[in-house]
Write a structure and sequence with these properties.
Blueprint: E1 2-7, H1 11-20, E2 28-34, H2 37-46, E3 51-55, H3 63-72, E4 79-84, H4 89-97, E5 102-105, H5 110-152, H6 158-164, E6 172-181, H7 184-195, E7 201-207, E8 210-217, H8 222-242, E9 246-252, H9 262-277, E10 283-285, H10 303-313, H11 316-333, H12 337-357, H13 368-375, H14 381-405, H15 409-421, H16 428-435, H17 439-450, H18 454-472, H19 477-483, H20 489-500, H21 504-511
Parallel strand pairs: 1-2, 1-3, 3-4, 4-5, 9-10
Antiparallel strand pairs: 6-8, 6-9, 7-8
Helix pairs in contact: 2-3, 5-9, 7-8, 10-11, 10-12, 11-14, 12-14, 13-14, 15-18, 16-17
Length: 513
């Protein structure tokens, strides 16, 4: 409801305005009545109305003086309606010059008044919409400014800082990094609603499974500010948990005393997120822990080969035990979560390749565990270990089934293709693309199965055909070389001599009957 203030020194006039007009029908509510302009100004200072309906002729301060004083006090948002008798038309013209375009003659006609109220209601609604648009634009600019300050404060101009300084005038600042399971729109909505319950709180980063939040607080001391941020963060955690967000973790960066240091709070929040990865806490503050250096040593990836080998050749118990041992080592060494993720991803893709190699359908392995590994949506090291172990055991079971029924897998299909098309020219890369496999994996797995590489098998097949043609036909060696697939006779000669220790002519003379 829009607030209305009635101003008139005649009690009967006030009573008439209250009784004759259906204010509520048009969304208005009378919040006060005054007998003169001076009294009206005092009431406006206490509770600013949306609409003032005032008579012109009043003692102490008349209606026009009231409008002038309101404008001087910058009450620009207040709408005015002037009421006056026909004899006061000159006063009405003065009111128009003051920007008051709404005028009612006494005695007030209820139909005329209500028609004007409908017009004023639409005017106020349109102004509210415009104000919301302006406020939204201002908030978005502030968020962009904060985001830039965090990542590259050099890109913030002095003009931008001065523009937003009045809105960001707080004594302490903190960055919160929130991770969660669930819909980012819903989580962001809850975070925004919680932010609106306090001042100077902005959700500035939104990605899948992660939110970033900046909060500025005004406090007399650092300890008071710290207590405020802890209380707010706990409230935020509770609100998100109560509104369907799952597996929430909030990492709170160090508190800083000015905006230019906000990047420090951001980076410490990122570090605290790594600590959350190694424990079961939902909420952790940088000021409560001693930040350490994390292990980014590539040597920690050496265990990939051992787990991969057990996935292919080991027992189920050995595989599970080894995965747990590796993650225990990660925990002790404080290996960076990024390395743990890379490690898990390597294992997973190796399992996919083995499945593909045996003619299976790797997408069958894409369960929730595998998806979480790929999407980095895990929240702590225990969850990653469990997801990887679950994936590996499922993969091992699938591989066992495929081995029982497989008759060669991808390698057999490639070998069959080579048997048919060995006279043509192709590369490992082209074969891999034809059979939708990684070229390196194809080359290695083919050697494991047949004891030699694809290209070597191609040369063997060409040589066998060349020997047959030398024995059964009178074609020249160069014609035979071209027929079996060699563009260069010297290349053909090199491979022929390597396998027979003879030149083509010598071979023909020795084996032709």
């Amino acid at each position: 409801m829009y607030k209305v203030l009635l101003v008139d020194d005649e009690p009967y006039a006030i009573e008439g305005l209250q009784l004759l007009i259906n204010w509520e029908k048009y969304g208005f509510e009378i919040k006060g009545v005054c007998a003169n302009g001076e009294e009206a100004i005092r009431m406006m200072q206490q509770d600013r109305p949306d609409l003032v309906v005032t008579d012109i002729r009043m003692p102490v301060m008349n209606g026009l003086e009231l409008v002038e004083e309101a404008r001087r006090l910058e009450y620009e948002s207040v709408l005015f309606v002037i009421t006056s008798g026909y004899s006061d038309f000159n006063y009405a013209r003065q009111a128009i010059r003051l920007g008051v375009s709404n005028y009612l003659t006494k005695p007030v006609d209820s139909a005329e008044a209500e028609e004007m109220l409908e017009r004023l209601r639409l005017q106020l609604q349109e102004r509210e919409k415009q104000e919301l648009v302006r406020e939204h634009a201002k908030v978005q600019k502030i968020k962009a400014c904060l985001s830039t300050l965090i990542r590259d404060k050099q890109n913030i101009s002095e003009q931008e800082m001065s523009e937003f300084a009045p809105h960001l005038n707080k004594s302490h600042w903190t960055y919160l990094r929130i991770t969660f399971q669930g819909d980012v729109q819903e989580a962001s909505s809850v975070a925004e609603q919680t932010a609106e319950l306090t001042t100077c709180c902005y959700v500035i980063d939104r990605t899948r499974g992660t939110l970033g939040l900046v909060w500025g607080v005004e406090a007399l001391s650092r300890s008071e500010a710290s207590e405020s941020i802890k209380a707010y963060t706990q409230r935020l955690l509770n609100n998100m948990q109560n509104n369907g967000c799952e597996d929430i973790h909030i990492a709170v960066g160090l508190m800083v005393s000015n905006l230019e240091q906000l990047s420090e709070s951001f980076h410490t929040a990122q570090e605290v997120g790594r600590y959350l990865f190694f424990n079961q806490e939902c909420l952790l503050f940088a000021e409560d822990i001693e930040l350490e250096k994390w292990q980014f040593d590539p040597e920690t990836m050496s265990e990939v080969d051992r787990i991969a080998d057990l996935l292919e050749n080991g027992s189920v118990d050995e595989l599970s035990s080894s995965i747990r041992d590796v993650f225990e080592l990660f925990l002790q060494m404080k290996v960076a979560p990024e390395i743990v993720h890379i490690f898990s991803t390597h294992i997973m893709f190796h399992g996919h390749s083995l499945c593909k190699e045996l003619g299976g359908e790797p997408n069958a392995l894409m369960n929730d565990s595998a998806s979480r590994i790929l999407e980095k949506s895990h929240r702590n090291i225990e969850e990653v270990a469990s997801n990887l172990e679950h994936f590996c055991l499922q993969c091992k079971s699938e591989l066992a089934i495929l081995r029982e029924r497989q008759v060669g897998g991808i390698q057999a299909k490639v070998a069959e293709y080579v048997q048919t098309y060995y006279r043509e020219t192709f590369t490992i890369q082209e074969l891999a693309e034809r059979f939708y496999v990684n070229p390196v994996h194809l080359g290695q797995s083919f050697i494991r199965k047949y004891g030699k590489g694809v290209i070597e098998v191609v040369h063997d097949l060409r040589m066998e055909e060349a020997k047959r043609l030398l024995q059964d036909t009178n074609q020249t060696s160069s014609a035979i070389a071209e027929q079996v697939g060699y563009r260069s006779y010297q290349h053909f000669l090199k491979h022929f001599e390597k396998r027979t220790a003879m030149k083509p002519l010598e071979y023909r003379q020795k084996f032709t009957t």
